[in-house]
């Protein structure tokens, strides 16, 4: 019986492994292609506008609290973006600062200031607002329905599902094969804005965030 | 035309004119105490303005509030969105456009802190709290109490709170909450009715 040489078998195994790892999203849906790409605003529209503040009506359900108010997101200089949550009665609940790929808490209303909670909120808003996505390498797969699946290279198990015409439709983040966060997006194709973003975080700290864009 | 402009901005002039320290602070404290004791209910419309340093425009909200002694408060926002807070002693109801939630004040630190500030500001009794150091100022139109937080939690939230009273010291006319980065929330109370009968049914939390 014909036997393949050992080096050939080894090389084939490595190739199969690489294919399996780089196209992990193939398990997620059924892609027909898989490429390494850099995510840009041509891949899908950004949530935030560089030039003016974005305002969202917001509700955050966490630790038996149902907090509502307005989230204001604004780029204050070329490197810094602030995310501020103010309740209806004018109390500021938090002010997060996204700078040099780090999310820092500038201010947190003291009764909410629990480390695990704040870390979850910081990660949640970073992912929801797509702050940490652009200019990153990702494995891109597509299927017949023109959907694109991005797996960000340095963040395994984070999948962004985009439609070529309707922007991002969802994000799914897994930790040790368990779903950690699901984020859904509603995109207004005519106005070219995301009108609604909803995030559900599972696990020990359960958080639900809903953002509805306030029309200017 | 000038007279018209003066009338239009008259209420604002009172709050922004130069202030000097009150000489007889004991007398003013007594007046505020008397006001607080004599006030059994307050009903008023309010305009809330939030100034954030990162935003060029203000966030303006309007609504109506009713206070009844002791510890009954109905704080109702009509615009830009409907939002209702009812405080009935130790219970809190919060109703937004989608959800109604009820809380026990003592089991929720977030609302206990907010409730304490709201009630003591509305009644003007916040100056008695040991959480603040109070300075007293006046001009021709109003008295101003400047409250500087003295305890850690409050210091982290506010740089100072200003309370304004008309010269007859009948009720709080305006309130300003200034945060550490100078973001400011102001509340102007208009169409005030003092000590009118208020049905307790509007504070019922079912």
Q: Name the chain pair whose interface involves the most residues.
A: A-B, 27 and 33 residues
SSE string of chain A, helices as H and strands as E? HHEEEEEEHEEEEEEE
- N- to C-terminal separation of chain A? 74 Å
Main pleated sheet of chain A = 13 strands, antiparallel
Runs of chain B with pLDDT <50, length 5+? 1-13
Mean pLDDT of chain B: 85
In terms of per-residue confidence, which ranges of chain A show pLDDT below 50 for 5 or more consecutive residues? 14-27
Q: How large is the count of helical segments of chain A?
A: 3
Helix content of chain A: 10-25%
Helical amount of chain B: 10-25%
SSE-based structural type of chain A: alpha+beta
- Strand residue percentage of chain A: over 45%
Oligomer: heterodimer
How can the largest sheet of chain B be summarized?
Answer: 12 strands, antiparallel
Q: What overall geometry of chain A do the principal axes of the alpha carbons give?
A: globular
Fold and architecture overview:
The complex is a heterodimer of chains A (216) and B (206). With 216 residues, chain A is of the alpha+beta class. Chain A has helices spanning 6-22, 25-28, 115-128; strands at 33-38, 54-62, 65-77, 80-87, 92-99, 102-108, 137-142, 147-152, 158-163, 167-175, 178-188, 193-201, 207-213. Chain A has a 13-stranded antiparallel β-sheet, covered by helices on one side. The radius of gyration of chain A is 20 Å and the shape is globular. The N and C termini of chain A lie far apart (74 Å). Residues 14-27 of chain A have low confidence and may be disordered. Chain B is α+β, with helices and mostly antiparallel strands and 206 residues long. Chain B contains four helices and twelve strands; from the N terminus they run αβαββββββαββαβββ. In chain B, strands 1-8-9-10-11-12-2-3-4-5-6-7 form a twelve-stranded antiparallel β-sheet. In chain B, a hairpin with a 5-residue loop joins strand 11 and strand 12. Chain B is globular. The model of chain B is unreliable at 1-13 (pLDDT under 50). The interface between A and B is medium-sized, with 27 and 33 residues.
């Amino acid at each position: 019986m014909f036997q393949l040489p050992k080096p050939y078998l080894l090389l084939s195994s490595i190739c199969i492994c690489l294919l399996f790892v780089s196209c992990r999203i193939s398990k997620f849906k059924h892609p027909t292609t898989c490429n390494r790409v850099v995510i840009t605003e041509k891949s899908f529209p950004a949530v935030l506008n560089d030039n003016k503040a974005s305002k969202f009506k917001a509700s955050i359900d966490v630790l038996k609290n149902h907090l509502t108010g307005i989230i204001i997101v604004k780029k204050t200089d070329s490197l810094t973006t602030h995310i501020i949550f103010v309740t209806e009665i004018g109390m500021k609940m938090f002010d997060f600062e996204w700078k040099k790929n780090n999310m820092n808490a500038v201010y947190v209303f003291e009764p909410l200031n629990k480390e695990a909670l704040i870390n979850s909120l910081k990660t949640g808003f970073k992912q929801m607002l797509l702050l940490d996505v652009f200019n990153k390498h990702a494995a891109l797969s597509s299927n017949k329905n023109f959907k694109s699946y991005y797996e960000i290279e340095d963040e395994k198990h984070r999948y962004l599902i985009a439609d070529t015409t309707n922007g991002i439709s969802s994000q799914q983040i897994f930790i040790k094969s368990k779903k950690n966060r699901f984020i859904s997006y509603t995109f207004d194709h005519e106005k070219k804005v995301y009108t609604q973003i909803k995030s559900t975080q599972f696990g020990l700290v359960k958080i639900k965030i809903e953002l509805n864009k306030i029309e200017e | 035309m000038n007279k018209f402009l003066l009338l239009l901005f008259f209420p604002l002039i009172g709050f922004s004119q130069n202030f000097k320290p009150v000489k007889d602070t004991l007398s003013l404290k007594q007046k505020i105490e008397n006001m607080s004791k004599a006030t059994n209910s307050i009903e008023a419309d309010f305009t809330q303005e939030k100034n954030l340093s990162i935003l060029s425009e203000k966030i303006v909200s309007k609504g109506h509030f009713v206070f009844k002694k002791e510890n009954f408060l109905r704080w109702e926002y009509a615009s830009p969105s409907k939002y209702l807070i009812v405080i009935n002693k130790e219970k809190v109801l919060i109703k937004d456009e989608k959800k109604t939630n009820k809380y026990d004040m003592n089991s929720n630190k977030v609302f206990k802190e907010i409730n304490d500030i709201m009630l003591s500001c509305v009644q003007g009794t916040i100056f008695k709290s040991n959480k603040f150091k109070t300075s007293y100022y006046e001009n021709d139109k109003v008295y101003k109490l400047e409250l500087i937080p003295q305890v850690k939690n409050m210091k982290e939230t506010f740089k100072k709170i200003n309370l304004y009273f008309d010269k007859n010291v009948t009720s709080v006319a305006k309130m300003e909450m200034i945060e550490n980065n100078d973001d400011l929330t102001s509340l102007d109370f208009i169409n005030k009715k003092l000590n009118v009968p208020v049905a307790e049914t509007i504070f019922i939390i079912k």
